[in-house]
Design brief:
3 domains; mainly alpha; globular; 47% helix; 432 residues; 10 strands; two-stranded antiparallel ribbon; 18 helices
C-alpha cells in the first residue's frame, strides 16, 4: 500500500539532511541526527538488507556491500542521506511497509545514539507520518528500552474521555464485571498516585495564572460523570475531594477511574508500567494500555505480535476490531475481525501465489511440520470460514443466519481472535 506521499518522504529526507530547529534557552538552534545512529552506515544497512545478494551499481564490484563500502568508507564520496533516494532500497518508490520498517530501525535501541536528539527527530518524523495515516510507536522493550513498530494512526477526536466505570456501567450493574481491591492494594495505588499528584501552574480563560494539582483536575473531570464520594467513619457515603479517601473507601471501579484520569494527565513514560506492576503484584486482573484499563482476560491482540504484521490492510483491520471491541460494539468488532481473517488468508498472495497457497503457507508455519498441529490449524481455518459463510457476520449479508445474542458475538470474536493472534506470530515475510 502507498499512502505515504512524495511530499512526506521529501520532508523526512529534509529533516535528516538539514536538521531540526529546537527552542533552547530563549533561542532557536538547528540540531542534527544521523539516521544510522551510533553504527557505521553500512552496518546499519546490513541490519535491513542482504547487501551481498543485492546488485552493485559500480562495475568494479560484485555486490552492493562492496560497492557501498567503497563509496561510504574507502572514498566516502556518496552524499549524506543518499540511501533515501537509492533505488535498490525502495524507500522513494517502494511500499509503505518497506519505508516504515526502515524508519523503525532508525530508532531501534541497538542503533540510536541515546545522547543525541533521537527523541526530537522521532517526534518530528511522527508528525509528518501522521499526515498520511501512520505513526511509529513503542511496541516492545529490550533491556528496558523502547523498540518501535508502526501502526495506523487514529487521530483522537476532541471528545470527552469516558472513564472505566462509565464505559462499562451496564455490565457492572448486571454484575457481569465483578471486582474487589484489598486495603493493602488500595494503599499502594494511593501512594503511587500521590507521587504523580504534582502542583503546576495553569491559566484560566481570562489569562489568569493559578496553582492547581493533578488531583484537583481529576476530581473536576470525575464530576462530569458522577459526584466523587467515599465512606466516612460512620459508614455514610459522602462527597469528597480527598484523594486518599476516594481511593481507600470507595467502589473499586472508582479506583480504576482515578487511575485512568491520572494516566491522562501524566507525561511520564513510567506511569503505565509502574501501575501495571502494582496491579499485577496484587493480582488485580487489569492492565493499563494507551490510557485505558482493560481486563486482562479480555486483553486484545498482543502489541508485540502486531509488530510482526507488515501488511497495512491487515494491521488496520486488527486495530479497528480491537477498538470496537473495547468500545463494547461487538457487532462491528466481529465484522472487522472477520475481514481481518479473510485478509490474513491472502497475506502471502502474489502473481504466483493464490489464496489457497497463502493459507497453506500460514498453516505450515504454524504447525512446525508436526502433523497433529497441521491438521488442527487446517481444521480451524476451515471451520471459521464456514462460520463466516453461514452466519450474518457482515451486517449487509441479509440471507444468512442472524446473530441476535451478544454472547454469541463474544464467542465468534474470541474464537476468531484466538486463531488470528496465534497466526500473526508466525508471519515472517513474504518468502515461500
Amino acid at each position: 500500500m502507498n499512502r505515504i506521499t512524495e511530499i512526506t518522504k521529501r520532508d523526512i529526507l529534509d529533516l535528516f539532511q538539514n536538521g531540526l530547529e529546537i527552542d533552547e534557552f530563549f533561542r532557536t538552534r538547528t540540531v542534527t541526527y544521523n539516521y544510522y545512529g551510533r553504527l557505521e552506515e553500512i552496518d546499519f544497512l546490513k541490519r535491513l538488507y542482504d547487501l551481498e545478494r543485492m546488485p552493485s551499481f559500480d562495475s568494479r564490484f560484485a555486490n552492493a556491500e562492496q560497492d557501498i563500502w567503497q563509496h561510504t568508507v574507502n572514498n566516502d564520496d556518496y552524499p549524506y542521506c543518499w540511501v533515501f533516494e537509492e533505488k535498490r532500497f525502495n524507500l522513494q518508490d517502494g511500499s509503505d511497509e518497506v519505508y516504515l520498517k526502515f524508519l523503525c530501525e532508525v530508532f531501534h535501541p541497538a542503533v540510536r545514539y541515546d545522547k543525541g536528539y533521537w527523541k526530537e527527530f522521532l517526534v518530528a518524523t511522527n508528525k509528518l507520518l501522521q499526515n498520511d495515516g501512520y505513526e511509529i510507536y513503542p511496541a516492545e522493550k529490550i533491556s528496558n528500552r523502547d523498540v518501535y513498530g508502526w501502526r495506523i494512526y487514529r487521530q483522537e477526536d476532541n471528545t470527552l474521555f469516558i472513564p472505566y466505570s462509565q464505559r462499562n456501567a451496564k455490565d457492572i450493574k448486571a454484575k457481569k464485571i465483578v471486582l474487589s481491591i484489598k486495603r493493602k492494594a488500595r494503599n499502594q495505588i494511593y501512594q503511587f498516585l500521590e507521587r504523580y499528584n504534582i502542583v503546576y501552574q495553569a491559566t484560566d480563560e481570562t489569562g489568569w495564572n493559578y496553582n492547581t494539582t493533578v488531583a484537583e483536575d481529576v476530581f473536576n473531570e470525575i464530576r462530569q460523570f458522577y459526584v466523587p464520594k467515599c465512606y466516612n467513619d460512620k459508614k455514610e457515603y459522602v462527597e469528597t475531594a480527598d484523594l486518599q479517601a476516594f481511593i481507600l473507601s470507595n467502589s473499586p471501579f472508582c479506583v480504576l477511574d482515578a487511575i485512568e484520569f491520572f494516566a491522562k494527565h501524566s507525561i511520564s513514560d513510567d506511569f503505565e508500567p509502574q501501575i501495571n506492576a502494582i496491579l499485577k503484584l496484587n493480582e488485580i486482573p487489569f492492565q493499563l494500555s494507551k490510557g485505558k484499563l482493560m481486563n486482562t482476560f479480555d486483553t486484545q491482540i498482543n502489541k508485540n505480535s502486531l509488530v510482526s504484521v507488515q501488511e497495512v490492510g491487515l494491521k488496520e483491520l486488527l486495530q479497528e476490531a480491537s477498538k470496537y471491541y473495547d468500545e463494547n460494539n461487538l457487532q462491528i468488532a466481529v465484522e472487522k475481525l472477520w475481514d481481518a481473517f479473510e485478509r490474513l488468508k491472502t497475506y502471502y498472495c502474489s502473481s504466483t501465489v493464490d489464496k489457497k497457497k497463502s493459507v497453506n503457507k500460514i498453516i505450515m508455519d504454524m504447525g512446525n511440520n508436526q502433523q497433529p498441529f497441521l491438521e488442527l490449524f487446517e481444521k480451524e481455518f476451515h471451520e471459521l470460514t464456514i462460520l463466516g459463510n453461514n452466519f450474518r457476520i457482515r451486517h449487509h449479508e441479509t440471507t444468512k443466519t442472524d446473530i441476535q445474542d451478544k454472547r454469541h458475538y463474544e464467542y465468534f470474536y474470541k474464537r476468531c481472535l484466538s486463531l488470528i493472534s496465534t497466526a500473526i506470530q508466525y508471519l515472517d515475510g513474504r518468502n515461500l
